[in-house]
Write a structure and sequence with these properties.
Elements (H helix, E strand, L loop, with lengths): L1 H39 L3 E2 L5 E10 L2 E13 L6 E8 L2 E7 L2 E4 L16 E3 L12
Parallel strand pairs: 6-7
Antiparallel strand pairs: 1-3, 2-3, 3-4, 4-5, 5-6
Protein backbone atom coordinates (compact mmCIF):
# COMPACT_ATOMS: atom_id res chain seq x y z
CA UNK A 1 0.00 0.00 0.00
CA UNK A 2 2.92 2.36 0.73
CA UNK A 3 4.29 1.99 -2.82
CA UNK A 4 0.90 2.84 -4.33
CA UNK A 5 0.56 5.97 -2.18
CA UNK A 6 4.07 7.08 -3.11
CA UNK A 7 3.36 6.50 -6.81
CA UNK A 8 0.08 8.40 -6.58
CA UNK A 9 1.80 11.32 -4.83
CA UNK A 10 4.52 11.37 -7.49
CA UNK A 11 1.92 11.42 -10.29
CA UNK A 12 0.04 14.29 -8.63
CA UNK A 13 3.28 16.28 -8.26
CA UNK A 14 4.19 15.62 -11.92
CA UNK A 15 0.72 16.74 -13.02
CA UNK A 16 1.06 19.96 -11.01
CA UNK A 17 4.54 20.63 -12.41
CA UNK A 18 3.35 19.91 -15.97
CA UNK A 19 0.37 22.22 -15.62
CA UNK A 20 2.57 24.97 -14.21
CA UNK A 21 5.01 24.57 -17.13
CA UNK A 22 2.25 24.73 -19.74
CA UNK A 23 0.66 27.81 -18.12
CA UNK A 24 4.07 29.47 -17.79
CA UNK A 25 4.77 29.01 -21.51
CA UNK A 26 1.29 30.31 -22.35
CA UNK A 27 1.88 33.38 -20.18
CA UNK A 28 5.20 34.04 -21.92
CA UNK A 29 3.41 33.87 -25.27
CA UNK A 30 0.73 36.25 -23.96
CA UNK A 31 3.43 38.72 -22.85
CA UNK A 32 4.98 38.61 -26.34
CA UNK A 33 1.59 39.14 -27.95
CA UNK A 34 0.68 42.04 -25.63
CA UNK A 35 4.06 43.70 -26.21
CA UNK A 36 3.77 43.36 -29.99
CA UNK A 37 0.18 44.62 -30.10
CA UNK A 38 1.00 47.60 -27.88
CA UNK A 39 3.89 48.55 -30.15
CA UNK A 40 1.64 48.15 -33.19
CA UNK A 41 -0.94 50.56 -31.73
CA UNK A 42 1.49 53.08 -30.22
CA UNK A 43 0.87 52.11 -26.59
CA UNK A 44 3.29 51.40 -23.78
CA UNK A 45 2.91 48.03 -22.01
CA UNK A 46 3.31 48.91 -18.34
CA UNK A 47 5.27 46.61 -16.05
CA UNK A 48 6.07 44.43 -19.12
CA UNK A 49 3.82 41.69 -17.81
CA UNK A 50 0.37 40.13 -18.03
CA UNK A 51 -1.65 38.16 -15.50
CA UNK A 52 -4.17 35.43 -16.18
CA UNK A 53 -7.52 36.79 -15.06
CA UNK A 54 -9.98 34.21 -16.26
CA UNK A 55 -10.84 30.99 -18.06
CA UNK A 56 -13.89 30.19 -20.12
CA UNK A 57 -15.11 27.33 -22.27
CA UNK A 58 -15.68 28.39 -25.85
CA UNK A 59 -16.66 26.65 -29.05
CA UNK A 60 -13.77 27.29 -31.45
CA UNK A 61 -13.39 25.64 -34.84
CA UNK A 62 -16.12 23.17 -33.97
CA UNK A 63 -14.64 22.04 -30.63
CA UNK A 64 -15.10 23.12 -27.04
CA UNK A 65 -11.81 24.50 -25.75
CA UNK A 66 -10.53 26.49 -22.78
CA UNK A 67 -9.84 30.12 -23.56
CA UNK A 68 -7.57 32.05 -21.20
CA UNK A 69 -7.99 35.76 -20.47
CA UNK A 70 -4.94 37.83 -19.58
CA UNK A 71 -5.13 41.35 -18.18
CA UNK A 72 -2.44 44.00 -18.31
CA UNK A 73 -2.05 47.75 -18.14
CA UNK A 74 -1.03 50.13 -20.90
CA UNK A 75 -0.35 53.82 -21.16
CA UNK A 76 -1.53 55.99 -24.02
CA UNK A 77 0.59 59.06 -23.26
CA UNK A 78 2.86 57.99 -20.39
CA UNK A 79 0.75 59.71 -17.72
CA UNK A 80 -2.12 57.24 -17.43
CA UNK A 81 -2.87 53.59 -16.75
CA UNK A 82 -5.54 51.89 -18.81
CA UNK A 83 -6.66 48.27 -18.72
CA UNK A 84 -6.04 45.92 -21.60
CA UNK A 85 -7.16 42.34 -22.08
CA UNK A 86 -6.34 39.54 -24.46
CA UNK A 87 -7.84 36.09 -24.88
CA UNK A 88 -5.87 33.11 -26.14
CA UNK A 89 -6.57 29.52 -27.08
CA UNK A 90 -3.28 27.63 -26.92
CA UNK A 91 -0.93 30.11 -28.63
CA UNK A 92 -3.62 31.70 -30.84
CA UNK A 93 -4.79 35.21 -30.00
CA UNK A 94 -8.58 35.17 -30.22
CA UNK A 95 -9.47 38.61 -28.85
CA UNK A 96 -7.76 41.84 -27.88
CA UNK A 97 -9.16 44.85 -26.06
CA UNK A 98 -7.01 47.97 -25.75
CA UNK A 99 -8.13 51.51 -24.82
CA UNK A 100 -7.92 52.53 -28.47
CA UNK A 101 -8.87 49.34 -30.33
CA UNK A 102 -10.96 46.19 -29.95
CA UNK A 103 -10.22 43.15 -32.11
CA UNK A 104 -11.74 39.71 -32.03
CA UNK A 105 -11.79 36.46 -33.95
CA UNK A 106 -15.40 35.54 -34.69
CA UNK A 107 -16.34 31.88 -34.90
CA UNK A 108 -17.30 32.26 -38.56
CA UNK A 109 -15.50 35.29 -40.06
CA UNK A 110 -17.25 36.86 -43.02
CA UNK A 111 -14.36 38.87 -44.37
CA UNK A 112 -10.89 39.42 -42.94
CA UNK A 113 -10.86 43.22 -43.11
CA UNK A 114 -14.52 44.18 -42.82
CA UNK A 115 -15.75 46.10 -39.80
CA UNK A 116 -18.72 44.98 -37.80
CA UNK A 117 -21.66 47.31 -38.27
CA UNK A 118 -22.14 49.87 -35.53
CA UNK A 119 -18.74 49.55 -33.89
CA UNK A 120 -15.00 49.67 -34.14
CA UNK A 121 -14.50 45.89 -34.09
CA UNK A 122 -12.21 44.42 -36.71
CA UNK A 123 -12.09 40.65 -37.13
CA UNK A 124 -8.70 39.10 -37.76
CA UNK A 125 -7.11 35.75 -38.27
CA UNK A 126 -3.99 34.23 -36.78
CA UNK A 127 -1.16 36.50 -37.80
CA UNK A 128 2.42 36.18 -38.81
CA UNK A 129 4.63 38.84 -37.25
CA UNK A 130 5.87 39.71 -40.75
CA UNK A 131 2.37 40.59 -41.93
CA UNK A 132 0.41 43.69 -40.89
CA UNK A 133 -3.27 43.54 -40.06
CA UNK A 134 -5.23 46.10 -42.04
CA UNK A 135 -7.41 48.58 -40.16
Amino acid sequence: MGDFATLLLLLVLLAIAGTWLVLSRARDRAIQEARWRCQQHGLQLLDETVGMSGLRVRRFRGKRVLERRYSFEVSIDGNDREAGHLWMIDSVLTALILPTVELYTPEYPTHETSTVEGGNVLPFRRHDHDRDIRH
